[in-house]
């Protein structure tokens, strides 16, 4: 496992060891000691959530929750957009098996499936709660270059406030 810093403070991209075999592949997607040695802050997983998405083009909004996240697809591919809410800085990633992200609490994260039959894992260090900040994934200020697919998203995500409105609400 190797961790790479990104342009957003605290956000780390992780290369996992994907080992091909005659049947497909094997990966150790989460190993606390190896991740700590690679530079991931101490991280005690309390909940593991899995999302299965049948189609490419499914987009889930920009949500910032009060917990750290470790994100990794185990099948398919995802385009991920991470937003630093104070500065509006955006960093995007294309992830597949063999990739992971460590996303510190407070950063907004969103994803769009780019392949059918995608399985996306979310390991979090606090139990899920409805507390979150939501930002419109189509906010022109963010100018996220979403994949050129027919996108499907919830009205709730599309109706989320712009980043400027979120900043005003928090002030």
UniProtKB/TrEMBL annotation:
InterPro entries xref list: RmlC-like (IPR000888), RmlC-like_jellyroll (IPR014710), RmlC_Cupin_sf (IPR011051)
| Family the entry assigns | Belongs to the dTDP-4-dehydrorhamnose 3,5-epimerase family.
Protein name as it appears in the record: dTDP-4-keto-6-deoxy-D-glucose epimerase
């Amino acid at each position: 496992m190797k961790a790479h810093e990104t342009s957003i403070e605290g956000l780390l991209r992780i290369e996992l060891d994907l080992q091909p075999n005659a049947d497909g592949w094997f990966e150790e997607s989460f190993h606390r000691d190896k991740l700590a040695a690679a530079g991931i802050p101490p991280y005690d997983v309390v909940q593991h959530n899995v999302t299965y998405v049948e189609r490419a083009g499914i987009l889930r909004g920009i949500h910032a929750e009060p917990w750290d996240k470790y994100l990794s697809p185990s099948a398919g591919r995802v385009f991920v957009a991470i937003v630093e809410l104070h500065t509006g800085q955006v960093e995007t990633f294309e992830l597949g098996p063999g990739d992971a992200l460590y996303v510190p609490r407070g950063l907004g994260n969103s994803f769009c499936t780019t392949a059918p039959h995608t399985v996306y894992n979310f390991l979090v260090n606090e139990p899920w709660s409805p507390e979150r900040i939501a930002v419109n994934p189509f906010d022109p200020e963010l100018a996220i270059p979403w994949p050129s697919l027919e996108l499907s998203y919830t009205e709730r995500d599309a109706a989320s406030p712009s980043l400027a409105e979120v900043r005003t609400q928090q002030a």
